[in-house]
Amino acid sequence: MSETTSANEEKKPPLNGRRALPPNNSNDEENEVPEVDPFGLIPRGFNPKDYLRVVDIYMFKDPQEINKQQHHTDKYYNPRLIVRRGQPFQIQIDFNRPYRPETDQFWLEYLMGRYPQQNKGTYIPVPVGNVLKPGEWGAKITHRENNSIRLSIMPSATCIIGKFRLYVAVWTPFAILRTRRNPATDTYILFNPWCQQDAVYLDDEKEREEYVLNDVGIVFHGNMEEIKSRSWSYGQFEENILDACLFLMDKAELELSGRGNPIKICRVASAVINSRDDNGVIAGSWNNSYDAGVAPSAWTGSVDILLEYYSSKQPVRYGQCWVFAGVFNTFLRCLGIPARLITNYSSAHDNNANLRLDFFLDDEGKVDTKLTKDSVWNYHCWNEAWMTRPDLPVGFGGWQVVDGTPQETSDGMYRCGPASVQAIKHGHVCFQFDAPFVYAEVNSDIVYSRMEKNGTQVIEKIDTAHIGQLIVTKEVGGDGMMEITEEYKFREGSDEERLALETAVMYGVKKQSTRDTTYQPQTDIDMDFQVQKAVLGNDFKVTITFRNRSRNSYTATTYLSGNIVFYTGVAKSEFKKQSFSAKLEPSSSNSFDVVIKSSEYMSDLLEQASFHFFVTARINETGKILAMQKATLLEIPSLRIKTKGELVAGKEMAVIVEFTNPLKQTLENVTLRLEGPGVLRTIKKEFRSIPMNSTLTWEVKCTPIRPGLRKLIASLNCDALRHVYGELNVQIRKP
Predict the structure, then answer these.
(1) 15, 224, 447, 550: which sits with the fewest CB atoms below 10 Å from its CB?
(2) Is 13 contained in some domain?
């Protein structure tokens, strides 16, 4: 006896003097609902079977039936009814006898969580009336035949989203009779971008198809000069993904009553997508060693990551910015919030938010790595989610920046957003959440300075145009790139841009003045350099060009530093350093070549094959310093994908992946991944080694489920070579 009582006591939540009910933040937990709910003493002759009784409920929940078709939820690989709020859906109830409206009274009850309450929106009684009001809970009978009735049910346009339990309650003089708990009648209610009263309403059908219903996307990476793209499978409709996304809100302990609000959902999700401080979905790693996990570059989509987290409840290793953004996008689209993945090229990570990135040079003009704390990411990915912002002044709704990559803390946790894109553009960074950080990511200046022996700081160069030069996303309805820089900032140097900056400074973005330092740029000599395009494993050259516009002869002591860098701009190692003296004749241009051999960089190469070159030149006659930096990428070989056999839904076909090793070395412990939403689940295969110049061929048999245009995505990964991708569009025909 004592053992059972102690077990029961453990289950009770701890009491809290401030609230009568424990927190209700799990969509999965349930309460017991009585089938017979008496009003008082029940007379002895009472027999529930004498009254109207529900025999069966038909949910019209198959993908080809009316509800999922009208609610744009037919793609979800889920047997339950899935509808969107603010839009009516149909169910049919079969009784034990014909329904008589004069005497019979019944209603529906939707419940969520363990402590359903009407004022929290977790217990919703829906009476049956004669008319449906737009955007408010209600039900009306549309059809009666024999013992059956057909109901049209309208969920409120602001109701909480998640999985509800459905009961039908019948009134009798002595008790309320309810249907048994039946998981088959559970109903998922999601956000509705098609409904004007919903906070996520989007008025363009093509945009809704892209930002809510498209289950594959494109990640743009590389850098400004060499934009690269790869496909990412969002897979928001795949089996168990909807439940996994609802579980993320339970994990983040978001009160059920707050789950109708897209602002709250985005805010808690941006924290739970990363594992810092809450054991969230993905553990980030930027150090090029991925033991006991998957290298960020190996993932081809979000499904594996979300399903692994849903089953293990432990952070999935490892991710970098595009992985966080890819999974976040799946989460948002799955719940019905329009979302897109954004890439910002030359993204500032300004660790003290003073709108300037400080690069400190030593006496020779080299960057002092001990003093320099800020960094420029070649690119950074985040997300935009579409919603109204009733918490802000009019005009700041629409696209909001949300970022799941852990960079800086916000209100004590690693999270970022939602921040209004419109507010960032106009410098109104006082509006929540985290607008100053995003403003700095796209607007900082790079300041090169060095300390004189007497302690004064001399600014050698200010680069106002390098940061946030290009902000892009995938175009609507195609795989091309759409530039959205103008959504974030006015044209560089325009009056509006100055005004936005002054506004941001007024609202508390720290802009360090350069008045306490001396700044006299060298005006009569220009320096630039170009890096030759090169394929991984080959030699290439860097050409440095000086233009002397004066009538004087000068000599320039020039220093080139080549670093292998993470895409976050953090250097791993300097693989090339070369100094030379350049003679600059009056009114002329001179070019100098520096050759980079593959043997110098191959041993230390990081996965994105990304280099950072830093060139500084000291004009000996004037003591002035010229400084310039550029990131560059090597061409990485790609995978080839082909298909064999008929491409028909329900018929077996074959997918063939080929790869030729271009390096002057054998690749060892190679992992291939292949996936395609609606065609095949992710498959992995390990290969012990691929000798140089040899070709690997991998054939996979699969049976596509869904007709239509589908995408196959493959990745190859090993220690010597990462970020190798291939993709293929396939048109799957109806059988």
Answers:
(1) 15
(2) no
Summary mean pLDDT of the chain = 89
Q: Are residues 134 and 79 in the same domain?
A: yes
Spatial distance between the Cα atoms of 212 and 190, rounded to a whole number of angstroms: 12
Residue 169's nearest CA partner among 34, 356, 31, 309 is 34
> At 504, which amino acid appears?
A
Mean predicted confidence (pLDDT) in 123-138: 95
CB 340 within 8 A of CB 383: yes
Per the model's pLDDT, the better-predicted residue between 442 and 3 turns out to be 442
pTM: 0.88
- Binding site feature residues for Ca(2+): 443, 445, 492, 497
Whether residue 124 lies inside any domain: the answer is yes
Are 624 and 522 in contact, with CB atoms under 8 Å apart?
Answer: yes
Give the model confidence (pLDDT) of 606-631 as tens digits. 666 778 888 888 888 888 878 888 88
Do 359 and 367 contact (CB within 8 A), yes or no?
Answer: yes
Report pLDDT digits (tens) over 668-684.
999 999 999 889 999 99
Q: Which of 455, 479, 507 is the last residue of a domain?
A: 507
3-state helix vs strand vs coil in the chain, percent to 5? 15, 40, 45
Domain of residue 626 covers: 525-633
Pairing mode of beta strands 356-361, 445-451: parallel
Active site residues: 321, 380, 403
306 pLDDT above the threshold of 90 = yes
* 480 and 610 assigned to the same domain: no
